[in-house]
């Protein structure tokens, strides 16, 4: 069946069929099959379409998911596109969502003083911000009872990144539903490109949770004001790139691994305001560098204003007219403070290494000091990239 007929069948029959035995039920089998994916433009061997009306018994809120198998093969974890039916069968939502079971199991005993619901909401908020997603519809409302089966529905409500709501009595035609699925799938691909490692869900969401908590350069209001006031006159001063630290050895002469927490991945990452200020400093620096080449100077721009999907922050030019792709990494730590590159950023850097450079700004909040109006930085050329992510 196509998407429309599958959804309509579930909406019209689910409440009636749940009064019958689950084992061998035709509607439970229909949900497990999902719908015919041949009409989807993105259909390939990495797409998995399937659904569920419950496990061993009827679920309060059934679903039909479309998964990218490189990201996940189960709706218990990861990110996917999913049709979620409300318990009363009055609505069905097409949603960009997250696997709730992962959050219940993976983070129930971690050191963050925060519930799993709050954490999954933070991850949703992160991607909404990165993708400039603004839901015009009301938040999903799947659960209509306080039953145990409603816990999963509440988890999906918390994991909602983006959704489209359909009234059971006014279901669009199949062509509209197909276009909506393709739109939602494109947003899933954006999420995939923004993940630190699409194959390592735990690392990616840990990074995001730390980012949300530690992204601010400073919590001091006066310090923030002082930095902002100095930005118009601040200058970038290029320094020599620091030498990489060597691995320590123990007394036996063997290499000794130095344990380090993953929290550093985001402790000093740029936030919405001051991080963009670092990009503005680099933008002005590049324009000044090309002052003798007015045609090239006029084309320098900050592409990150339109989102993070390009893989770099600033488009500039070499004096021969060739493009120069600049990624800006701004932190408050020292020159050796680790920084993190997303999978999308790293892949772009490797593909364009001869025309790619990282501007590594550090000790950014020194601008709050009365006698400092300079921000230090060094460059990492694309040709210097090792075949691994810079951390």
Describe what this molecule looks like in 3D.
- There is one protein chain.
- The protein is an alpha+beta fold and 391 residues long.
- The protein has 2 domains: 3-202, Metal Transport, Frataxin, Chain A; 217-243 and 257-384, no CATH class.
- Helices cover 34% and strands 17% of the residues.
- The protein has helices at residues 3-17, 26-33, 100-106, 116-130, 150-159, 174-194, 201-214, 221-230, 274-289, 294-299, 343-351; strands at residues 47-52, 63-68, 79-85, 91-98, 162-167, 235-238, 301-302, 314-317, 323-330, 356-362, 374-381.
- The strands form 2 sheets. The protein has a 6-stranded mixed sheet. It has a 5-stranded antiparallel sheet with strand order 1-2-3-4-5.
- α4 (116-130) packs across α7.
Give short descriptive properties of this protein.
391 residues; alpha+beta; Metal Transport, Frataxin, Chain A; 2 domains; five-stranded antiparallel sheet; 11 helices; elongated; McrB_DNA-bd; DUF3578 domain-containing protein; NOV_C
């Amino acid at each position: 069946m196509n998407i429309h007929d599958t959804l309509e069948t579930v909406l019209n029959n689910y409440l009636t069929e749940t009064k019958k035995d689950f084992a061998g039920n035709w509607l439970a089998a229909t949900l497990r099959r999902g719908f015919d994916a041949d009409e989807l433009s993105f259909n390939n061997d990495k797409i998995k379409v399937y659904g569920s009306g419950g496990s061993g018994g009827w679920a309060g809120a059934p679903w039909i998911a479309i998964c990218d198998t490189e990201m996940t093969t189960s709706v218990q974890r990861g990110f996917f596109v999913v049709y979620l039916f409300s318990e009363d069968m009055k609505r069905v939502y097409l949603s960009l969502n997250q696997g709730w079971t992962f959050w219940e199991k993976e983070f129930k005993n971690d050191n963050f003083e925060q519930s799993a619901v709050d954490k999954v909401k933070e991850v949703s908020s992160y991607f909404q911000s990165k993708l400039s997603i603004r839901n015009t519809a009301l938040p999903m409302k799947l659960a209509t009872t306080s039953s145990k089966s409603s816990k999963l529905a509440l988890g999906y409500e918390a994991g909602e990144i983006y959704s489209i709501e359909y009234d059971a009595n006014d279901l669009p035609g199949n062509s509209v539903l197909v276009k909506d699925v393709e739109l939602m799938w494109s947003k899933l691909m954006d999420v995939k490109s923004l993940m630190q490692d699409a194959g390592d869900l735990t690392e990616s969401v840990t990074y995001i949770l730390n980012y949300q908590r530690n992204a601010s350069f400073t919590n001091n209001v006066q310090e923030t004001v002082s930095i902002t006031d100095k930005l118009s006159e601040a200058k970038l001063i290029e320094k020599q790139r620091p030498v990489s630290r060597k691995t320590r050895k123990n007394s036996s002469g063997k290499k000794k691994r130095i344990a380090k927490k993953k929290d550093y991945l985001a402790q000093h990452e740029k936030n919405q305001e001051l991080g963009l200020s670092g990009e503005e400093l680099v933008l002005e620096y590049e324009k000044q560098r090309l002052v003798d080449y007015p045609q090239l100077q006029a084309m320098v721009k900050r592409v990150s204003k339109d989102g993070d999907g390009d893989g770099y922050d600033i488009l500039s030019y070499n004096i021969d007219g060739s493009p120069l792709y600049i990624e800006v990494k701004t932190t408050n730590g020292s020159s050796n403070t680790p920084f993190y590159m997303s999978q999308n950023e790293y892949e772009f850097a490797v593909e364009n290494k001869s025309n790619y450079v990282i501007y590594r700004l550090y000790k950014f909040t020194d601008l709050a000091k009365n006698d400092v109006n300079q921000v230090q930085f060094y460059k990492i050329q694309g040709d210097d990239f090792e075949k691994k992510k810079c951390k």
